[in-house]
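=== RUN LOG ===
request id: a7f3
mode: sequence -> structure
chains: 1
length: 78
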Amino acid sequence: MQIFTVKIEDDLVAEVMTALEQFKDNIQITKDKNLEIDPYFYERRKKLQQIRDDIKSGKMPTYDFESSMDELIKELEN
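=== RESULT ===
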């Protein structure tokens, strides 16, 4: 079995579903709940994973905001 994701324009959904009706015994149609909530779910997940990997590998620096704020306050007090 193979899995595909198909984007269908709203005005064509009924026609596509009718065309697929002849294969109803051999195919399973499900809606992806993640895509119903957020149409860009998988793109966002991929980007967030890349950011996480970059932070872990050191490619993307992280900042200690607490110590940075302490330094800023000291600088402003002077």
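=== NOTES ===
The mean pLDDT is 89.
The CA atoms of residues 35 and 41 lie 6 Å apart.
=== END ===
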